[in-house]
Amino acid sequence: MEIKIEDIVRNAAPDLQVVTIEANVTNHPTTPKLKEEFLALGEEIKRRYTMPDINKRPAIAATRAAYKALGKEPNRYRPSSEALCRRIVKGMELYFISDLVDLINVVSVASGYSIGGFDADKIAGDTLSLGAGREGEDFEAIGRGQLNIACMPVYRDEVGGVGTPTSDNERTKLSDDTRRLLMCINVYGEEMPVDDTVALATRLLEEYCSATDIKVTTYR
Predict the structure, then answer these.
(1) Closest of 34, 27, 22 to residue 179, by C-alpha
(2) Rounded to 5 degrees, what are φ and ψ at 4?
(3) Where does the pLDDT of residue 153 fall: very low under 50, low under 70, confident under 90, or very high at 90 and above?
(4) In this predicted structure, what is the pLDDT of residue 21?
(5) Residue range 149-154: mean pLDDT, rounded
(6) How many other CB atoms are there within 10 angstroms of residue 128's CB atom?
(7) Are 19 and 216 in contact, with CB atoms under 8 Å apart?
(8) Alpha-carbon distances of 171 from 62, 126, 142, 177, rounded to whole Å
(9) Torsion angles phi and psi, residue 66, rounded to 5
(10) Where is 212: in which H helix or E strand?
(11) A GO molecular function for this record (predicted)?
């Protein structure tokens, strides 16, 4: 899979790096050990941040700045990393979906980066372009129905949008049947060092999803 970053996004976010991780995986309901790891991270986040601190985390602040530069209001359409951290700091119960989904959430909360997780076999073509959403563009967000992605960074395949920093699309979402993962780590501004983020993601993939043939690529 290749990522092409369009000029409109490059101009709005000149420091953007997209790091992709591709791997063969197995997926299952969230294992107790991963739940424990996620819950422990949640307690650490609650100790480190108050609610006003969350959108000042460097990675989250940079993602919000990209939204604003493209013309999107980030307080109405929060990046997923921000939304997850807010949920944790509010003391709301974490939800668990599957090992693949939840390990991506662990990496996102730990690093501050919004991360797309896609079933690579459901992506049409071998290239994703990262551009800006258009008015009225169809996008069925996971668990949310139609999402207004106008002026939002959006990955598109040959069919249409598959992911934004706010939500991924139902069409290419991860499921129990996913065998090939594409993870897109959106580094609009660095917080956790990229190498450390990749190392964390790789460890979790190998430990919980028996990942093999792991390929890491960075796009700027």
Answers:
(1) 27
(2) -115, 120
(3) very high
(4) 98
(5) 97
(6) 28
(7) yes
(8) 28, 16, 9, 14
(9) -65, -40
(10) strand 212-219
(11) phenylalanine-tRNA ligase activity
pLDDT for 25 equals 98
Task: Report d(CA 61, CA 52) in Å as an integer.
Answer: 12
The identity of residue 136, as a single letter, is G
Rounded to whole angstroms, the Cα distance separating 140 from 170 reads: 6
Segment 134-158 shows an average pLDDT of 96
Tokens representing 217 are 């690529």
Containing 155, the helix (H) or strand (E) segment is strand 153-156
- pLDDT, the chain, mean: 97
Report the C-alpha gap between 32 and 104 in whole angstroms.
16
Q: 53 falls in which pLDDT band (50, 70, 90)?
A: very high
The token pair at 128 is: 């994703």
Note the pLDDT tens digit of each residue in 169-185.
999 999 999 999 999 99
H-assigned helices in 150-220: 194-209
Mapping DSSP onto H, E and C, the string for 19-73 reads EEEEEECCCCCCCHHHHHHHHHHHHHHHHHCCHHHHCCCHHHHHHHHHHHHHCCC
